[in-house]
Specification:
It contains 10 helices and 8 strands. Strand 1 and strand 2 form a beta hairpin. It has a single domain, classed as Rossmann fold (3-Layer(aba) Sandwich), CATH 3.40.50. An 8-stranded mixed sheet has the order 1-2-4-3-5-6-7-8, with helices on both faces. With 284 residues, the protein is of the alpha/beta class.
Length: 284
Amino acid sequence: MNSDEEVITSYAKAPNRTLSAGGTTFAYRELGPRGGVPVVFFAHLAATLDNWDPRIVDPIAKNRHVIAFDNVGVGGSSGTVPPTIEQAAEDAYRFITALGFDTIDVFSFSMGGMIAQDLIVAHPGLVRRLVLTGTGPRGGKDMDKVLRTTYYDVLRATLTRSDPKEFLFFNRDTAGKRAGKAFIERLTERATDRDAPIRLKAFQTQLRAIQRYGRSTPSDLSELTMPTLIANGDNDRMVPSALSNDLHQRITGSELIIYPDSGHGGIFQYHPDFAPRAVEFLGG
């Protein structure tokens, strides 16, 4: 980027880019001022590039180089979705190193937080600062129930002609319903060059990978020595809120934010509070 080129700080306007690494073409978007350590965003189950809340991304991109990418086999990235979270982490490592970075900060949500944990365990020293939201540790109690919960809520959404995320991410009280609809509306702010939605088979493979992760032997999280911010709602039905506290207990020196009367998407419902806190943490 030339010094006189305008810095894009709106996720809705970030250009689509591709990068080839190890036989895979990765689709990604980047925004914010270049230079220094980038903040790499690790996405949730079934997410494409269009699933990041601009009210979270844009404040971070105001002063930081932000990179979001499609996992292998999802959206604009080529290949086949890997059957395990460990392999997804190795795919992410290929992408990051192909970009030329040996140090990154991570912002992760849900499945993205699981991938980030496996990435750090396999490649200690890569991540400088870590944000884990709506996620839990490998082998976390009741995490393997995500498959049943997800299919149930997808059915409920289909019957009401709603987006499944309104059920999966938000409580079904008045405040939750309002927050869910506002969140879905924000995801449509990008009007052009939108990503391809995830295919059903890819979605099912990711879901089984999370279930396998939930039934696995816990990882040694002593490798997670970097400053870590953990956040969730107090009523997460996808990745039980208790697992956020579990992570907090196991990651020395971590910070924990639990938002009241909210679910898996608590950080999106409370974005006016959470976004500035994430900006401050990542800028520390």
